Amino acid sequence: MNAASKILVTGPNGFLGVALIERLLARDTPGVVAVVRAGSDRKRLDAVIARHPKSDIQIVTGSLATVAEASKLLEGVGTILHLAAALRGPAAEIFLGTVVASKNLLEAIVARRERPRIVLVSSFGVYGVADLPKGHVVDESTPLEPHPERRDHYSHAKLRQEELFFEYHRKHGVPLTVLRPGAIYGPNGGAFSGRVGLQLPGFFLFLGGKNLLPLSYVDNCAEAICLAAEHARFDGDIYNVHDDELIDCGEYLHRYRRDVSPLRVVKMPYPAAMVMSKAVEWYHKHSRGQLPAIFTPYKTRTTWKGNRFSNAKLKGLGFNQLVSTDEGLRRTFEHLRASSPS
Amino acid sequence: MGELKVAIVGCGKIADGHVEEIQKLGHLARIVAVCDREMVMARQLAVRYGVPNTYDDYDAMLRTEKPDVVHVTTPPQVHKDLAMKAIDAGAHVFVEKPLTLDYAASRALVEYADRAKKKLGVGYSYHFEPHAEELRNLVRAGAIGDVVHLESFYGYDLSGAFGKALLGDPSHWVHAMPGKLLQNTLDHALAKIVEFIPDERPEITAFGSLRREARFGDRRDELCDEARIVIRGQRVTSYVTFSAHARPVAHTLRVYGTKNTAHLDYNNRTCTLERTPTLPSAVGRLTPAFENALAFAAQGFRNMRRFSRSKFHFFAGLGLMFERYYESILKDSEPPVAHRDILRVAWMLDRIFAEVDASLTTSKRRDTSSNPTEAEAR
C-alpha cells in the first residue's frame, strides 16, 4: 500500500455508515479506516466487522471537533468518504456536527501537501424546489435552495456544508465529488420519509399522495458511494443518488400498512395541506412563536407538491441497483415488523 | 435612551432563546449583531433570525456596533472576560448562567459592573416564569405565612439533547467546570430559593453520588448525577435535590409556611396552595382532594387564558426577565436579579461543589476498600 492509499470513513456508525462499511468490506476494499467518537455505541459496526474477519479495516477513535483532531486522522489517507453529520437536535448542534466539523476537516486537508480526495454525502434537501412547477424533474442542474432559513435545520446545514466544500474546492483545489441521496431507507432506518407524511399522536397524516418517492435503499446508496470513490472525476462533480425503480408515496404507505401495521391514516390532499400551512404560519406569527411553524406554505411546496427525479448521471458511473425496490421494501418492513412493540 | 442596541456573543443553543425573546420586545430592544469565534455559527443564527451583522472578532463587534447591551451566551469559562470587555466598551451586560466559574470571579465581575455603573443581568429565567410570579404574590399576600422550609427539586435528563451532547463529548465545556453538570444546573435550583432565605452565609451540607454505570473510561464517567443538599439558615431551611434518574424529570419548589404550603411546578406551569383543613374529622379528610382538583382546574383555565393571549411561550420567563432587565437600564433602576442574590448563589455553589467532591472521593475510597483486588483477596 502506498503512502496515501487509505480510505477514511467519517460517520461509520450511522445508518448509512454501517451499510457503507459492509459494502466496502464486501468489495474487499483494502485500507479502510473508520473514525468513531469516544464512547459511541459500536454494536452494529462491530457486527459488520465480525462478518468480515479477514478484512484489514482499522477503527480509530477520534473526532472532527477541532482542526488538530481532524489532522490526526489524515495520515496516509488518499480518499475520504465524508458521511458525518448531525441529523437532529437544536440548530446549533446540527451546525456544529455538520458544518463546523466539515470546516475543521477541510482546514486540516488544506494544511497538507498531499490532499486526499473527498466524496461528500450531501442530501436532496439542498435543492430549492418550492417554486418549481409540480412534476419538475430534479436532477443535478436543479437550483440550490435560495431560502435555507425557511427550511428545516438539517437541510439548512447540509446546504451550508456543501457550499463550504465547493468553496474549498474552488479556492484550494480540494478534489471533490458530491453525492446527493434521496430518501435513504432500509432495516434500522426510519419507517417514513417526511415526503410520505407525518406520524402524529394516534394517527398518520398522509400528505404525499401520488408523488414519486426518491427512494434509495441503504445498500444501494452505499454502493453508489463506493462507485463514486472509484470512478468519479473529483472535479466538483455532483450525482443524485436514488434507485432505478421508484414507487409513489401511496404505494409505500399501502405496503407498510399491509406488511408492518394497519396504521390509522388521515389523508390530506395537497390543497388542504396548503390551507393548513397558511393557518399554522399565520398563528405562528400572530402568537409571536407560541407554537412552532412546523407547517409553512414554503415547506409544504418543497415537500409535498411533487417532483420527478433523475439518476441518469449516476448511471453514467455504472450504478445499478444491487437490491431491488421490492426486496428493499420487504427487508425494511420485515425489520420494522420485528422491532415494533406489538 | 430609546430602543436599546443589543449584541450577542456565543451562538450556541441558548442564543436561539435569547434572540427569540429579545425580538418579541420590539419597542425596547433591537439585535444589531451576533458574534461567535466560529463564523459558521454566527451566520446560521443571523440567517435564521434576520440579524443584520455577524462577527468572529468580539473586539471588532464592540468597536463597530457600539452596543448598549451585550448578551454573553458562550460557555461559562469565558463569561467573566467577555463581560468585562463589554463593560469596558460602555455596554451593560447580560450573562447566561452560571455567571462565572466560582464565587471569587463572580464577585470580581459584580464589583466591576457596579464600579462602571453598568447593569449586570444573569440568566435566572425560572425566577420570572408566570407561576413564580404567582408564588411571590401568594407570599406577599400572606397566604403562606412565614416561610419555614423549602424543597427545591431539579430533575435532569441525560438522554435529552443537552445530556447526549455532553455525554457524547469528553471535551464538552461542562466537564471542565469545577462543579461540572451541577454547575450548569444547580444555580436554577438555588436561584429560586435564595429570595426566601435571608441569611448571608447559611450552613450548607451536601453529598453527591454516581448512579450510572461507568462506560466511557474517561472523565464523562465522573459526572455526578445525583446530589442532595441541606441549607440551614437562622429561620428558614431548605432541601435541594438534583436527580438525573428520577422520573418524570421534574422541576418543582415547595414552600412550607406557618399558614399553608405552596407547590410550584415549573415544567407543568402550576402554582397551587395546599391549605390547612378547616373542617373537622373525616369530612376534613374528604374535601382536600376536591379542593386540590379545583385549584389545578383553576390553574388550567388561567394557563388557557394566557395561551389565548399568546403569553404562554416556552421561554416566557426569559422574555419577562429581559423586559425587566432592559427597563432597569432605561430607568436606571435595580436590575431584576439583585447582585446580592447573584453572589449568594455563587457562594453556595462553591460550598456545594466542595462538599459533593469530598463525598464522591470518600465513596470512591470506600468502594475500593470493599472490593479488594484479586491479589489482596488471595
- Average pLDDT rating of chain A: 95
Quote the distance from N terminus to C terminus of chain B.
79 Å
Helix percent of chain A reads 25-40%
What is the percentage of strand-forming residues of chain B? 15-25%
CATH architecture label of the largest domain in chain B = 2-Layer Sandwich
Give helix and strand order of chain A, one letter per element, not per position. Answer: EHEHEHEHEEHEEEEEHEHEHHEHH
Instruction: Name the structural class of chain B.
Output: alpha/beta
* Biggest chain-to-chain interface with counts: A-B, 27 and 32 residues
Average the pLDDT over all residues of chain B and give the rounded result. 93
Query: Quick one: CATH class of chain A?
Result: Alpha Beta
The total count of strands of chain A amounts to 14
Any guess at the CATH architecture of chain A? Answer: 3-Layer(aba) Sandwich
Number of strands of chain B: 13
CATH fold-type name of the largest domain in chain B: Dihydrodipicolinate Reductase, domain 2
Low-pLDDT ranges of chain B? 373-378
Main β-sheet, spatial strand arrangement of chain A: 3-2-1-4-5-7-12
Task: Please name the defining characteristics of this protein.
heterodimer; A: 342 residues; alpha/beta; Rossmann fold; 7-stranded parallel sheet; 3-stranded mixed sheet; 11 helices; globular; B: Rossmann fold; Dihydrodipicolinate Reductase, domain 2; 2 domains
